[in-house]
Amino acid sequence: MAEKKPNFLLIVADDLGFSDLGAFGGEIDTPHLDALALAGMRFTDFHSAPACSPTRAMLMTGADPHVAGIGSMLEVAAPGFAGAPGYEGHLNDRVVTVAELLRDAGYRTLLSGKWHLGDTAESRPHARGFERSFAFMPAGGSHYGLGEVNRFATVESVYEEDGRVVTELPADFYSSDYFADRLVDYLAEDGERPFFAYLPFTAPHWPLQAPEAEIAKYRGRYDDGPSVLRERRLARMTALGLCPADVVPHPVVTREPEWTAMSAEERAVSARCMEVYAAMVDRMDQAVGRVIAALRASGRLDDTLILFLSDNGAEGAVVEAMPIFGPIIADRIRQHYDNSLANIGTASSCVWYGARWAQAATAPSRLQKSFTAEGGIRVVGFASGAGVTQRGAIGRAFTTAMDVAPTLLDLAGVSHPGPAGGVAAMRGRSMAPWLGGMAESVHPADTETGWELFGRRAIRKGDWKALWLPVPAGSGGWQLYDLASDPGEIRDRSADKPTILAELVAAWERYVQEVGVAPGPVSVFELEGTEII
């Protein structure tokens, strides 16, 4: 009798902070995700790309995003930039997806949620391996259906099912609810074949919108401001063993005013935005609960490996201050949306919560989404279910989103074709031995891992990390950090460890050559004078 293949459920939250879930130190009600996390292995050194679509390319291919075609987010491309190889803005033909390989091996491949990996005929979900798919195609948009908010302007959201544009959605549509319910429908269509189910939520990505019942649960919860929340989260993370007791968190980096310097009205609006954010996370957790309940009822839960992660660190951008696009966004929001206190969180509002709340969630790490500092790339993640014997454990090994595809293929007994098959090799490694208690790490100690987005750079080898950020976020030169003793990236060791820095800079140059990092400005964030903190 053939060995039974495991099922896979990959859940991705959009812009979720490291400590937002209860199992990771948060105060938001997330009982379903907490139960999964606490029954499995929570990761403390899991890394993504600095932003969403590059991470999704890593997940789907096991390759570096510069190889896979998502070397940058072309929504913010610099004027005149044309997509170079690796910067096509969609999954290219140099890579094969885990969905394609699992489908060819007999798996049902299912997607319900955000795609953001291209809308060309060759890069849509059905063309890249998904038998069934309900996909939100762009970067972001209204959580209430076919509204106007999309990416960095007020244009129509786009949904597709199995490659066909969806023109009507239910009157009670809410993104997290519908994504989960549609996936449950897909799972019920065939209970015989093993499945790979991909559930990438758009929550809690801005615009911050949630049902009133959930928002009401958090009224007044954040009236003390983000600094108090940051302290509470850090204390809880320490108590849970997720953070060293002697950790020194990186100071908050932002031009936003301190809580005490804001007017009462400004504080009320800011706290309401955080209340809505919490409500979005809460509602997403409820949606996950329905998927888990359906798997349990069908008898398939025990045979399913569940992987959960955020696609990057918490989003702290003040979107209206973005280079080039910011003034356009601000003007359109004034024309089309009602962001009065009483209306925040509804379908007719369009708000975000800013850097101070974001860095409360990324602490003790430095900065937030879009940066190659740890706050942008060290993300919440866990594995639970089939194949995870380290139950209730905290996994401290270095891992990345590129390790997900190799893990699924390994457990499914499916080989990756690699260069001999005409596609790029995976840079990730299988986590299966580590999750199964047969290995203490995923990557060899001499592994060199690089990151680059918007001209922001980082390279890591072991616990040493070299970081290059432009002024004012960084020094405008290479800085060196020992993450084992300094997870907050506070103490620059470049002066007293010049040999290690030189080794890492050389590793960076190898990385640039291997993956094809573009030498010139690709995005508006790389243009002089446009750094936004």
UniProtKB/TrEMBL annotation:
Identify the domain of life: Bacteria
Task: Enumerate the GO terms in the molecular function aspect.
Answer: arylsulfatase activity; metal ion binding
Coiled-coil annotated residue ranges, if any? none
One of the Pfam families matching this protein, by short name: Sulfatase
Keywords, A to Z, come to: Calcium, Hydrolase, Metal-binding
* Gene3D superfamilies membership: 3.30.1120.10, Alkaline Phosphatase, subunit A (3.40.720.10)
Q: Which SUPFAM superfamilies match?
A: Alkaline phosphatase-like
Q: Which InterPro entries match?
A: Alkaline_phosphatase_core_sf, Sulfatase, Sulfatase_CS, Sulfatase_N
Which family would the database say this protein is a member of? Answer: Belongs to the sulfatase family.
Q: Does the keyword Calcium apply?
A: yes
The residues covered by the Sulfatase N-terminal domain are 6-414
Q: Write down what this protein is called.
A: Arylsulfatase
